[in-house]
Amino acid sequence: MIKTITFVTLVFITLSGHGQKGTYCNPVSDTLYAADPSVLFHDGLYYLYATSAGDGFRYWTSDNLSDWEQQGYAFRKTDQSWGKGSFWAPEVIRYGNRFYMVYSASGETMFGKGLRICLAVSDQPGGPFKDLHAPLFDLGFSCIDGHLFVDTDGTPYLYYEMVGAVGEHWKNRGFLWGMVMGVTLSPDLAELMHEPGLCLYVSQKWEGPHSMKARSNEGMTVFQHGGVYYMTYSGNHYADPNYGVGFAVSDRPLGMWEKYKDNPILKQDRSIGVSGPGHNCVVRSPDQKEWFIVYHSHADPDRPGGKRILNIDRLVFNADSTLSVSGSTRTPQPLPSGVPGAHHH
């Protein structure tokens, strides 16, 4: 009898890793270094874009959000490109019958070198994306982390983080600050229809309001569910273990959003090796029944920094319209519903 139990235990241990049928385990890959992940679902396939290359953006594909295959470049700069470096946080949406990539890069502005939001377009989700408007606008401030949201009435909106530096030698005696701005775009996505307005700024303790590294709200994602507009966002400094995800709600896309009082909904858990989980996107399972939050965390929790790995966990809409995350997880979880081979109770 004892031998049988030992055998069963061994079999279970063997199966409970990445290879267990119908499950996945975070991080979904030990070798996929993808910061600021953004996922698009199109024609049964997930496309992952991320801060991944110094000269543009690579992309990966998957049919289950867990097993990713690296493809080539979705966007690569040329000698003619406005963006010269700091290619960060690409996001792709399908709009009309084309695919639009919003990203940030550094180039020459009216005030010298700076970071701006750019817009590129392609007929295919894998690219190649070509710059349509680079930069999309220049209001004299550095901007990163662009996000496009199309409302149910078809109106397109752009959200981004406006960033600045406080302190003469801010790297030593100052900090980066950032706030989330929102604006309506013209139907062809080419123009801002009005002055961008403030949506979020640092106001909660976990966001590091007294940090001498960064006092920022960034990496926002906007979606609608049950008549409520939700905005997930990240707070604190990207290289800090306390970097995490919170959310805010609104009854309309623009204006100030109301933060959830019990943020963050995703935070570090060093006991299982999770540090700095953040800069997320939100995507649904292939059968649309489940919602997932896709985010990065520090590849080495003992040396938090720019090297970040990919995680997915379930996003839950509670009865009181609040959001919560079933995670961070580091144990086998069921694959998304509607995925071939996924088991669901």
Overall number of strands: 22
Report the C-alpha radius of gyration, rounded: 20 Å
Percent of sequence in beta strands: over 45%
> CATH superfamily, please?
Glycosyl hydrolase domain, family 43
In CATH's first tier, which class applies? Mainly Beta
Distance between the termini: 30 Å
Shape: globular
Mean pLDDT: 92
For the biggest sheet, the summary is: 8 strands, mixed
Low-confidence runs of at least 5 consecutive residues? 1-18
Number of domains: 1
Number of discrete helical segments: 2
CATH topology tier name: Tachylectin-2, Chain A
Structural class: mainly beta
Q: How much helix, percentage-wise, in residues?
A: under 10%
CATH architecture: 5 Propeller
Helix and strand sequence? HEEEEEEEEEEEHEEEEEEEEEEE
Description:
By secondary structure, the chain is mainly β. The protein has one domain: Glycosyl hydrolase domain, family 43 (Tachylectin-2, Chain A). The protein is 5% helix and 48% strand. The chain is built from two helices and 22 strands. The strands form five sheets. Strands 10, 11, 12, 13, 14, 15, 16 and 17 form an eight-stranded mixed β-sheet that branches. It has a four-stranded antiparallel β-sheet with strand order 2-3-4-5, with no helix packed on it. The chain has a four-stranded antiparallel β-sheet with strand order 6-7-8-9, with no helix packed on it. β3 and β4 form a beta hairpin. The longest helix is centred in the N-terminal third of the chain and has 14 residues. The chain is globular and about 55 Å long.
